[in-house]
Automatic annotation (TrEMBL):
Name this polypeptide is given: Phosphotriesterase
Gene3D superfamilies: Metal-dependent hydrolases (3.20.20.140)
Keywords: Hydrolase, Metal-binding
Similarity field: Belongs to the metallo-dependent hydrolases superfamily. Phosphotriesterase family.
UniProt keyword annotation of Manganese present: no
Source organism superkingdom: Bacteria
Length: 315
């Protein structure tokens, strides 16, 4: 077994990942954001090019299966921009999907589906009958609920744990408005044995409770903050303070930052911003002023290299 980051162009050494946007979307289409789909390859490439021009070297696309992921387009963007792209398998909350699709995937075996996308290649489309491409997912994306877990979330998290144990893949979790992270940890780590070092707990800045953040950090999991976000602007002003508080409490090396661009309007190059470039143009300098260059390097380079790497147990 070799420790590597699995990108859409192949496995790379963790140290080669570079400055990383740890949670974003190049392609995304969900019913709740109708009319704001991220479905333009040229716009996606333009956004990544600006990010690269600011020193960005990698982006993790957390868009899971069935939500306009456009897996087949990701390798071309990676080649054109020179930016590593880590893609996700997995499934989001139930309301994003046709129940018939979820039933079919469940019958066929969710964990097996995730494993195939991690080891053989992702489906290039939003149905189980789509052709399988050669680009492999490098992470699993699943979701909790608002202050709790429903039956669907438990099934998805359980399947993600099984796929992790079969492959070593990291698991990124969407927490609705930043909530239910303790429930997720209890299930994935406490009951299903996923090591905290393989867990990326997302959107925590949307529930800016410092005490809860410290409790989550004590588990050893990675804490993924994203912002600013047009969809969740209310807590943006507390983002930096939350990062500084966790760093000062000794958890600097668990922190991740991503842009989480989910609408066309939110892109910097073809929309109204702030988009991916904001991470390096604005947030990194602020983080550097608050904690120093070494800390900024940890958040943007060293931590993602560990968070997205795995000892892959299958080819």
């Amino acid at each position: 077994m070799v420790t590597a980051v699995r990108t859409v162009l192949g496995d790379i050494a963790p140290g080669d990942l570079g400055v990383t946007d740890a949670h974003d979307h190049l392609f995304l289409a969900v019913p709740s954001l109708a009319g704001q789909e991220l479905d333009d390859p040229a716009a996606a490439e333009a956004e990544v090019e600006v990010f690269a021009g600011l020193g960005g070297a990698a982006v993790a696309q957390w868009t899971p299966f069935g939500l306009g992921r456009a897996a087949g387009r990701l390798p071309a963007i990676a080649r054109a921009t020179g930016v590593h792209v880590v893609a996700a398998t997995g499934l989001h909350q139930a309301h994003h999907y046709d129940p018939a699709l979820l039933d079919r995937l469940s019958r066929d075996g969710l964990a097996a589906f995730f494993v195939a996308e991690l080891t053989e290649g992702m489906l290039d489309g939003d149905t189980p009958d789509a052709p399988r491409g050669t680009a492999r997912a490098g992470m699993i994306k699943v979701a909790g609920g608002f202050h709790g877990l429903d039956d669907h979330a438990r099934r998805m998290l359980t399947a993600a744990a099984e796929a992790h144990h079969a492959t070593g893949a990291p698991i990124g979790v969407h927490h609705e408005m930043g909530t239910a992270a303790p429930d997720v940890l209890d299930l994935l780590h406490g009951r299903l044995g996923v090591p905290p070092s393989a867990l990326l707990l997302g959107h925590l800045n949307r529930f800016p409770d410092p005490g809860l953040h410290r409790e989550l950090a004590a588990s050893g999991a990675f804490l993924a903050f994203d912002g600013p976000s047009r969809a969740h602007h209310a807590t943006d002003w507390r983002l930096l303070a939350g990062l500084v508080a966790l760093a000062e409490a000794g958890h600097l090396h668990q922190l991740l930052l991503g842009g989480d661009t989910v609408t066309a309007t939110a892109r910097a190059t073809t929309g109204e911003g702030p988009g991916m470039p904001y991470l390096l143009r604005t947030l990194r300098p602020r983080l550097t002023r608050a904690l120093g260059e070494e800390a900024a390097t940890a958040v943007f380079r060293t931590n993602p290299a560990r968070a997205f790497s795995a000892r892959w147990t299958t080819p």
